[in-house]
Amino acid sequence: MTEWRQEPYVGKPQGAVTIDVTEAVVQDYIQRTDDHNPWYTGDSPFGGAVAPAMLLFSHSYRDIDSWYLPTRYGNLHAKQEWWFYQPVLVGEQIVASTSITDRYSKRDRDYLVSEVVITKEGGMLAARSRAHQSFLRDGASGGMVVDRERKPKRTIALQPGPVLEEFGPCSRLVDQDACERFVGDRLNYHNDKEEALKLGFPDVVVQGTQAICVLNQLLTEHFRADWWMGGRMSVNMVNVSWVGERISARGVVRKRQTEGSRSRAECDVWTEKDDGTITVIGSAAAAESGD
Predict the structure, then answer these.
(1) How many CA atoms, within 13 angstroms, populate the side-chain half-sphere of residue 113?
(2) Interval 57-96: pLDDT, tens
(3) Helix locations, the chain, DSSP H
């Protein structure tokens, strides 16, 4: 095997996993995210209980040893993209296939992109996601990567423009218990302060996916069934959320354009802290059926 194939490379497969979407699997999502949408456990417009659109919210990270760079000091989740094509009902079976689809550099960091393709019986596409993970170059391993007490280096604001509709907030206090429930039993810098210090962070770093799950709840509640059938989201993690802070997800509809018999709403979405600091920001869209 050539040397380059021993490191993460574009096209590297990370395997496929078959998952039975049972009531227990959905309950695990509910407990981790605190998202208690009644459609997850009862009737829905799809003919029965439906799995959350972002059921596999952290599937890219199920085996980080298969794709992370060796130096993990200061690594951060930088960007997340999701596309939803059709719902998965509780009781169905899905296959999640994962591979590295991009590798690039920007400023002082290297980025790897892990893509998950989720299919139903017969290979029907249900959803797709891409996680962009960033790593410090040159094996840096000293000092604090981010200082909790200082103001964020990046001041982010929404771009000016027309606002057709505002929605939200959907808020969640992310305390230590919430971090532990979301991350699970494995200790890392998202649920343990000592592990955070080892990687250059002064306190527990709220997992970026945790904020994105709050955004998913916001968009599910706003667009309802339409979110599962053609919804999409692309967001960047721009400032760190720390344990003990509140995540509030908000959105605005910027424009609507005709898409067949439906109208696609193009949105700006973001999460912010109580002091107004934006932590996650990007775009989302859904084709509204009017139902």
Answers:
(1) 16
(2) 999 999 988 899 988 888 899 999 999 999 999 999 999 9
(3) 23-33, 176-183, 193-198, 208-223, 225-228
Domains of the chain: 3-288 (3.10.129.10)
Q: Are 250 and 240 in contact (CB under 8 A)?
A: no
230-273 confidence digits (pLDDT tens): 999 999 999 999 999 999 999 999 999 999 999 999 999 999 99
* 239: amino acid identity, one letter: N
Cβ(251)–Cβ(168) under 8 Å? yes
Q: Taking Cα atoms as reference points, which of 40, 134, 36, 51 lies closest to residue 96?
A: 51
Q: Is 275 helix (H, G, I), strand (E, B) or coil?
A: coil
Dist CA 194 CA 188 (whole Å)? 8
What whole-number distance in Å separates Cα of residue 70 and Cα of residue 72? 6
Q: How confident is the model at residue 4 (pLDDT cuts 50, 70, 90)?
A: low
Using alpha carbons, list the distances in angstroms from residue 105 to 116, 144, 179, 236. 21, 22, 30, 16
3-state secondary structure 174-185: ECHHHHHHHHCC
CA-CA-CA-CA dihedral for 19, 24, 26, 29, to nearest 10: -100
Which structure tokens are listed for 56? 């596999």
Question: What amino acid is encoded at 47 in this protein?
Answer: G
Q: What is the DSSP letter of 109?
A: E
Beta-strand runs (E) in the chain: 13-20, 76-84, 93-106, 109-119, 125-136, 165-174, 232-237, 245-259, 262-272, 278-288
Q: At what angle do helices 23-33 and 176-183 cross, to 10 degrees?
A: 150
**DSSP string computed for 168-219:** EEEEEEE-HHHHHHHH-SS-STTT-HHHHHHTT-SSPBPPHHHHHHHHHHHH
